[in-house]
Design brief:
Number of strands of chain A: 0
Shape of chain B: globular
Largest sheet of chain A: none
Oligomer: heterotrimer
Order of helices and strands of chain A: HHHHHHHHHHH
Number of domains of chain A: 1
CATH class of chain A: Mainly Alpha
CATH superfamily of one domain in chain B: Dipeptide-binding Protein, Domain 3
Structural class of chain B: alpha+beta
CATH architecture of chain A: Orthogonal Bundle
Structural class of chain A: mainly alpha
CATH topology of one domain in chain B: Dipeptide-binding Protein, domain 3
Radius of gyration of chain A: 23 Å
Number of helices of chain A: 11
Chain lengths: 297, 522, 329
């Protein structure tokens, strides 16, 4: 650690009032230009995957369930740009279809987890002692329920649907986000500026939303990025249990999972979906890390 | 009757040759000659320790043969115990602990036990042990897997120290074969605790931890001269297929049960290993319930059978390690297979015509599949794909493997089942196709079939039996709401140094009974 | 508005002790609640132990008989009541499928799980702290970016893929390490290392990223505060500032993230246990779910919950001790 220098000034930009009047594309461009390189790369990939999620199926050369290759785990070729999978289906087509499930469900569930988790954490932080106690114990109970049982019970009770998948994937990560957010919020709640606000007679909701939340946004976003990764990976496990995405459709994680026997021969059928997951999740996190953040300086 | 010419039957390798030489099958079993065909076979060697891995790893692992439900149980039980009979590679019964089993009416059977057989604790085998071992299956507390089959044992009584009589409820020419299943292994009379694995089998139990491992040491006093060959067998479970194959290829284990067809390329590419294929009657079948709409329509059933691209299923799902089936449960290599039956093949036009006749329209039909029924999810995808081309709107509903058999199996109009090989045609028909069978998967009713079944069961003449079973195959193929696309071969991975293997179509690992047959050769 | 952690010696140690006692009391309540919830929802699962034990080929009469044998025909509240009274007397009950007491099965598996978790912790925590802190101190620098992408990529790959690739390389290709982790009875240190190298590595890949990233975020969050600038202006070395001033303030979120990650090591080790065939608790519990072995399932759930609660308590206590402002809370 010796010799490491501390950056004395954060690269956080100070938005000039004039920018507010500029046209959106210009503003977006300027905002993008200010991002560090990693942020630009992240943003590019995130946009790329968003586009694929939206129009991917239109680009697919073959139907998603069509058995087009006599061989399995074929390498990339002119007919099959990314090779064929364990049943001889076109990997590229399946990938293009799968992206929307992973992007949509992953983002949705991560958002759900973080909104609920952080919301409850704020309530716990500014609320009375017993509220905090109650919520925390509740979360401890929830996290201790084996998620496999929960998933199986939900499927047995409500059948399988994408909404259920989103709900379960999200709920699984609520307690984790709650822990982290609560730790941050309780810390901030003891800060002088919060005490000052309380002394001013501000309402709890105001303190939570205007004083505490903005100051914990950055670590929370970092947490969101990781939850997104975990959820993307969890989706395939849940799909495997029979929850959610139904064949012949699949999410990216399921593509990796179903082609696992091609790993030894290095088939693109497993490498490409894995690469897709990696680029998607890493870029989301790179972008989040590069976001200019406002601390209470 | 099963005869035992006293010695050469300890060498299982001679068996194929012996049967090939045209042995006569007689009433109630087969006659195996005493003549020894000492072929130029490599001489088995003694010694060696191996590790074998099955795919199950469960705290339900048991030493109680009646409770055996997983591959690891069957292997373990064949290591520790013996049955009255044993199965050869064509699933015919041979002498085991019984030297003779005979009946004039296929209903009352007289059994003569081998003398001089001892349990691992030194006690001698007597008819009382057999009576106890068989009758306990009828008690609910035993929770026997084969309780349904054991119901036909009306009485089992000892006639002398080595003689006993089994009286059945009805004639059954297959009894010797039925008794060769590991569940009917012979344990000492009164055994209840099942902690020591005390049997008459080729290995003594040295260590047993449910869900972890079983260690067997060579039983030097085994009643088959010279056998077994290996000094020690450690049996473990590796449920994950990729891990199992990796363990084999890295030399951590020497035998791997149930290798995925997609892994065969890897195993065969290794100079030290090979995949051994056992063609079997295992199948995953489409179930079209005959008591629910719209699957009860004969046109619908016929249409679905035309919708199956059997060569594609064989190639894509099983990498050609399968045998094309014809919507009935008897595989081509079965002695009772009816050769002349026309093969149903993919025909979208005929399928479309049948669906139109059935009046399905474009109603969305859920098709339930689960990893619990091997390959069913992919089969469902294939059906859906072709269905769309034949104007049928199928939607695949993948459900959890957990609880599949109790919650989903046979409960939906369209679903999948998976049936393990059974030792006799009678068993498979009685359990899955008889009108009042508990697992009459499609719920079809066919009085003619039921009559033929009972007739064939008591029929001593083999040619006549074959004819009866042949007609039943036609009935199932044409009328039953079950679609069987292929029979799935059993694939095991072996270290090449393990010798003495031959397939037993009942299961991998030589019908789970490899322990006393294999030897190690560096 | 200096937020430097001025220690307040008068901050009552009693408050802390009272809080710990309260939490332990609450932990017991939580455990009971968890057992009740787990029992209830697993009771909702289709099928029961009798049905699963007899499998596909069971007749209703057989199932009913076995159900009676296992005592499953009693109402749910009676079963729960007898289980929990048994537990209060130190008896976790008899496994419904394994023909032995639950306690015996757990005794065999728990040490395995704890060992794997402990080894992983020993490797992962120092590594994560180092990565997180050095990233934060080099914020925006080359090292930061490299570490960032490295940790992210590690966590972005499905766990089973990482573990499988490791096996392919080190067991199948190089034959250096065993592909399945079953420790021989009298293991040498070499065997010990070989057995655990890959499972520990695979688990580290999963948990390090979250810990490292939270550490980085928390440290950066503090670095932006005025007191840091002030300390630096006073001429303190950056390393000293981080260790003496920043870490104590950042410790709350860090230990929470660590506790969360580490709690994953018991129940979440399922994939690693599966791939390396390691006989731990996670696979035991999955097994218990599948076979509907309720006493065993309950015992596993209790253990996971207890370990989780313990880790959370440790995290909270650490946070409070490190940041005295919280003591009065």
């Amino acid at each position: 650690m010796s010799g490491a220098s501390l950056p004395t000034a954060a690269p956080a930009p100070v938005p000039a009032p004039a920018t507010k009047r500029a046209a959106f594309p210009a503003r977006a461009l300027r905002w993008t230009r200010r991002l560090p390189l990693s942020g630009k790369v992240g943003l590019a990939f995130v946009l790329f995957w968003l586009v694929i999620a939206l129009i991917g199926p239109l680009l697919a050369p073959y139907p998603i369930g069509a058995f087009v290759d006599e061989n399995v785990f074929s390498p990339a070729s002119r007919t099959f740009l990314l090779g064929s999978d364990y049943l001889g289906r076109d990997v590229l087509s399946r990938l293009l279809h799968a992206a929307r499930y992973t992007v949509g469900l992953g983002a949705g569930a991560a958002l759900l987890a973080c909104t609920v988790g952080t919301g409850l954490a704020l309530v716990a932080a500014v609320g009375r002692g017993w509220v905090d106690e109650l919520l925390s114990r509740f979360m401890d109970t929830v996290i201790s329920i084996p998620s496999k049982i929960l998933a199986l019970v939900m499927v047995a009770a409500f059948g399988s649907s994408l909404w259920l998948l989103l709900l379960i994937a999200g709920l699984t990560y609520v307690p984790g986000n709650y822990r982290i957010a609560r730790a941050l919020a309780v810390n901030l709640n003891q800060m002088d500026f919060v005490s000052v606000a309380r002394a001013r007679g501000e309402r709890r909701a105001y303190i939570a939303l205007s004083e505490i939340l903005p100051n914990m946004l950055h670590p929370l976003l970092a947490d969101f990025g990781l939850r997104f990764v975990f959820i993307v990976l969890l989706l395939s496990a849940l799909s495997f249990l029979g929850l959610g995405v139904q064949p012949p459709q699949a999410d990216l994680g399921s593509l990796v999972r179903e082609n696992i026997s091609g790993i030894a021969e290095g088939a693109p059928a497993i490498l490409m979906p894995a690469l897709a997951i990696a680029t998607l999740t890493v870029s989301v996190n790179l972008l989040i890390d590069a976001l200019p953040h406002r601390g209470r300086n | 009757m099963i005869g035992d010419g006293s010695s050469p039957f300890s060498r299982r390798d001679l068996l194929g040759a012996a049967l090939g030489a045209g042995m006569v099958a007689t009433a109630g079993g087969i006659l195996v000659p005493a003549a020894s065909l000492a072929a130029a076979r490599p001489q088995p060697r003694q010694g060696g320790r191996i590790k074998a891995a099955t795919m199950s790893l469960s705290t339900a692992d048991t030493l109680d043969p009646a409770k055996g439900s997983l591959s690891s149980d069957y292997v373990r039980h064949f290591m520790l115990y013996n049955c009255l009979t044993e199965l050869d590679r064509t699933l015919r019964a041979r002498a085991g602990l019984a030297v003779r089993m005979e009946s004039s009416d296929q209903r009352v059977w007289h059994v003569r036990l081998r003398s001089g057989v001892t349990f691992h604790d030194g006690r001698s085998l007597t008819s009382a042990d057999v009576v106890y071992s068989l009758l306990r299956h009828k008690e609910p507390a035993t929770a026997s897997k084969l309780a349904a089959i054991a119901e036909q044992f009306r009485t089992v009584r000892a006639d002398g120290p080595l003689d006993l009589t089994i009286e059945l409820g009805g004639a059954n020419a297959d009894l010797p074969v039925i008794l060769a299943q590991s569940h009917f292994a012979i344990i000492p009379a009164g055994e209840k605790a099942f902690r020591t694995g005390n049997g008459t089998g080729p290995y003594r139990l040295a260590a047993f931890t449910p869900g972890v491992r079983t260690l067997g040491r060579r039983n030097a006093d085994y009643w088959k001269p010279g056998k077994p060959y290996l000094d020690e067998i450690e049996l473990i479970g590796i449920p994950d297929e990729v891990s199992r194959v990796n363990a084999l290829l890295s030399g951590d284990i020497h035998m791997a049960l149930a290798v995925n067809p997609r892994s065969t390329r890897r195993v065969n590419a290794s100079p030290r290993h090979l995949v051994r294929e056992t063609p079997s009657a295992l199948y995953t079948n489409l179930i079209m319930r005959q008591d629910q709409l719209p699957t009860s329509s004969g046109h619908f059933v016929a249409g679905m059978k035309y919708l199956m691209d059997r060569p594609l299923i064989k190639r894509a799902l099983f990498r050609n390690y399968a045998t094309i089936a014809n919507d009935h449960p008897i595989p081509p290599f079965h002695p009772y297979y009816r050769a002349g039956l026309p093969q149903t093949a993919l025909d979208l036009d005929k399928a479309r015509w049948h669906f139109r006749k059935a009046g399905i329209g474009t109603t969305r039909l859920p098709l339930y599949a689960s990893t619990a029924a091997e390959g069913s999810v992919d089969m469902a995808s294939i059906l859906q794909e072709y269905g769309a081309r034949a104007g049928l709107n199928l939607s695949v509903s993948r459900v959890p493997a957990d609880g599949y058999w109790s919650t989903h199996w046979m409960k939906h109009p369209l679903g999948f089942g998976n049936t393990n090989p059974r030792p006799t045609a009678d068993l498979i028909y009685s359990l899955f196709y008889k009108s009042d069978a508990p697992w009459n998967e499609s719920g079809w009713q066919n009085p003619r079939f039921d009559r033929l079944l009972v007739e064939a069961r008591g029929e001593p003449d083999d040619a006549r039996r074959k004819q009866l079973y042949g007609e039943m195959q036609g009935l199932v193929r044409d009328r039953c709401g079950v679609g069987i696309p292929v029979f799935i071969s059993l694939l095991d991975g072996y270290d090449r140094r393990l010798k003495g293997w031959h397939p037993v179509p009942l299961g991998g690992f030589m019908g789970y009974a490899f322990a006393e047959h294999l030897w190690w050769e560096d | 508005m200096s937020a430097s952690p001025a220690s307040r010696p008068h901050a009552a140690r009693n408050t802390l002790l009272r809080m710990i006692a309260g939490r332990i009391g609450a932990a017991f309540l939580t455990l009971i609640l968890v057992s009740l919830v787990v029992f209830t929802i697993s009771d909702l699962l289709p099928g029961d132990a009798a049905q699963e034990a007899l499998g596909q080929s069971a007749t209703p009469a057989q199932v009913a008989a076995l159900r009676h044998e296992m005592g499953l025909d009693r109402p749910a509240y009676v079963r729960f009541g007898s289980w929990i009274t048994g537990l209060a007397g130190g008896d976790a009950g008899q496994s419904l499928v394994a023909n032995m007491p639950v306690g015996e099965i757990i005794r065999e598996r728990l040490p395995n799980s704890l060992l794997l978790a402990a080894l992983t912790t020993l490797v992962a925590v120092p590594l994560a702290l180092t990565i997180g802190i050095s990233s934060a101190m080099n914020r925006g620098g080359r090292l930061d970016r490299a570490l960032n992408v490295a940790t992210l990529s590690m966590v972005a790959l499905p766990e089973f893929l990482v573990a499988t690739i490791a096996v392919l390389i080190f067991s199948v290709k190089l034959r250096w390490l065993p592909s399945i982790s079953m420790l021989p009875e009298q293991a040498t240190w070499g065997q010990f290392f070989e057995t655990f190298a890959m499972p520990v590595f695979s688990l580290c890949v999963v948990v390090i990223a979250q810990m490292a990233r939270m550490t980085r975020a928390a440290v950066i969050d503090q670095l932006d505060r005025p007191y840091v600038e002030m300390a630096l202006l006073k001429g303190l070395s950056p390393a000293r500032v981080v260790i003496r001033h920043v870490l104590p303030n950042a410790v709350g979120p860090i230990v929470n993230a660590m506790a969360l990650s580490l709690s994953y090591l018991l129940g979440g080790a399922i994939i690693v246990e599966t791939i390396f065939n390691y006989p731990g608790l996670a696979s035991l519990m999955v097994n218990a779910v599948t076979s509907r072995d309720m006493p065993l399932l309950q015992a596993c759930a209790m253990i996971f919950c207890a370990v989780y609660l313990l880790l959370m308590l440790l995290a909270d206590v650490t946070a409070i001790v490190a940041n005295p402002r919280l003591r009065s809370a």
